[in-house]
Amino acid sequence: MGFDLLTIGTQGVLTAQKQLNTTGHNISNVNTEGFSRQSVEQETNNPTWISGNTYGTGVHVANIRRAYDQFAVNELNLSTTTLHAASELDSHLDVMTNMLSSISSKKIPENINDWFDAVKTLADSPNEIGARKVVLEKSRLVSQNLNDFQETVRQQYADTNKKMDLVVERMNNIGQEIGALHKLMIKLPGPHNDLMDKHEKLIKELAQYTKVTVTRRSDGNTFNVMIGSGHALVSGTNASQLRMINGEPDPQQRRLAMVEGKGVKAIQSDDIGGQMASLFEQRDHTIPQVLDELGRVAIGFSGQVNALQAQAIDLRGNVGAAIFTDINEERAVKSRAFIGGGSTAEVGVYIDDISQLKGGDYSLKYDGSQYSIITPQGELLKVDPSGSPKSFSVDGMRVVIDSDLSAGERVLLRPARYGAANIQLIMNEPEKIAAQSYRSSESFSTGEASLKVLQSGLLKEFQVVISPAANQFAVLDMEGNIVVEPQTYPPSGPVTAGGTTFELTGGAAAGDKFAVNLTPSEGDNGNLLMMQAIQTNKTMNDGRSTVIDLFENVNTDIGLKKSTAGRLTEVARVENEAAQSRVASISGVNLDEEAANMMKFQQAYMASSRIMSAANETFDSILQIR
Asked: Which of 16, 77, 247, 380 matches a 20 to 30 Å C-alpha distance to 417?
């Protein structure tokens, strides 16, 4: 009897001791991040049967239970992913809005407007060399400002790629740490309460970077950790490796990939979630949008200025030369097409109609028999390149295919992306600014044709007349005398008359007349007045915007995105805090509750100790009986 009583007391003491230890463990870890409160589950021992009756045999510890709710944790992880996706995007847009409101950014429209002011001053005295020098200096400031700001924005693109590398490195480390924890769980007997806290802490950190799904494996001790739409980062004790790989065809547009054996499988960024999703969003959409709009500003401004220069004569009586680099120079044409490494394709992109020029990426594909192009809006267009070399036009650009794509090959077309980087001042002689338009007031045309003088010769005044059937043209002097006999219209190439060479495009209507006057006239400022009109003419976005409007619009767009991202971040933060509160209410340590438990378990310990004392006294009394 005494021995049974001693066993019961001993078990009670040990149980109370474990309860005190667990309570002390909870109190010690009250400020430990990710710690989940633990509690002792005790059960009665199996009773014993003696002489027709059952007698209790005491208590034992059945389990050390970890306060945990899978649904609450899943909600926390999901809200963590949403919060970090929103906050990363908000942070990036904050940087972009600050850049767009910086002094360097504000100088872009200011410098362009200063250029128009300088042209206006020159129009008042077209022959003044000093005023011409001011126009060239303002031209240099415009191009330099666009170059510098484009490089600043481009650096954000490079920085985002570097940040992706750091995030991927940390995700790989987390995968390795989770795999190591799984190995410990297999080696050590359960329950793995503290190890599970570390596991959940790692999962929560991983959820900052990407969407995470965790499932328990059949062995009961380890888990599968999936990221994105179901890519296994950790499977049991094995951790996969993530890697950033070069984009195709643009190597700088790097992609997330997972190493599978000796191969590498690219992961779609559409549903990766978390911070990585925001990094892809800013690199592939926000930054390119700003670069494209800068490019359209540069192309729209320099293209129109150069076009007006080409239809006027300078102070020396020559046809005006370009002030800025030609928007269709060979380097710019080639830079607009991204062709994969090892490809034999040759593609160039020319800008024919500035008013229709759009930003974004166009994807040109070839299936072996048919070319197609996907616009930035996602519209699929079938195209049939023709001519020699093959070419087709879309959205104001002319795509020239000098060498065909291979079957299944894809080429990225970015007509405006590098416009701000390519613009340069190439005129260094102020006398070459063309103030006088050579288009005579006697011109009359209703068709779409245009005439462009390439070189001024002895013939200074002439008119080109289209026949009533619109199938021939003739060159006449201003008196109506024939200089060049009627020829087939449109001409197959440049036409030369009296040493003057010009180009005449197709599309003229019957009876159209193009009159040209290449005789210098002191004080003539007709071309300068047309240059001034660029400031207010809505020549971009299909006639809806001016050049400066483009820059103002991108400021507005980024500002609206920043405002929306800020609101979404606040909503995500509230949801995350609510999820954290729910998890804390279940798993958090309450010091008042633990203090009460400490007193309760201490009393149980003392009471069980008294049972042991009673058993000892009873046993001593029995030994003293003689």
From this structure: 380
How far is Cα 535 from Cα 305, in angstroms, rounded to an integer?
Answer: 11
Dihedrals phi, psi of 64, to nearest 5 degrees: -105, 105
179-197 per-position pLDDT tens digit: 999 999 999 887 888 899 9
Is 251 part of any domain?
A: no
Which residue in 244, 249, 192 sits closest to 65, CA to CA? Answer: 192
Sheet holding 263-266, edge to edge: 241-245, 255-260, 263-266
Residue 199's CB: how many other CB atoms inside 10 A?
A: 22
Nearest by Cα to 454 from 321, 583, 573: 321
pLDDT digits (tens, 9 = 90+) for 270-289: 889 999 999 999 999 999 99
Specify if 604 maps to a domain.
yes
Last residue of a domain, one of 494, 517, 540: 517
Structure-token pair, residue 258: 């997972």
Give a yes or no: residue 324 inside a domain. Answer: no
Domain that holds residue 13: 2-67+589-624
The reply to whether 556 falls in a domain is no
pLDDT of residue 626: 57
Q: How many CA atoms lie within 13 A of 324 on its CB side?
A: 31
Tens-digit pLDDT profile for residues 395-439: 999 999 999 999 999 999 999 999 999 999 999 999 999 999 988
Q: Which of 481, 502, 517 is the last residue of a domain?
A: 517
Name the strand (E) or helix (H) holding 106: helix 103-124
User: Alpha-carbon distance 20 to 424, whole Å?
Assistant: 78
* DSSP 8-state assignment for residue 344: -
User: CA-CA distance, 499 to 518, in Å (whole number)?
Assistant: 12
Residue 16 pLDDT greater than 50, yes or no: yes
Top-confidence residue, 182 or 48 = 182
CA 309, CA 452: separation in Å to the nearest integer?
11
CA distance linking residue 436 with residue 518, whole number of Å: 9
Type of residue found at 329: E
**Does the global pTM surpass 0.90?**
no
Give the chain's domain count.
2
The pLDDT tens digits for 346-379 are 999 999 999 999 999 999 999 989 999 999 999 9
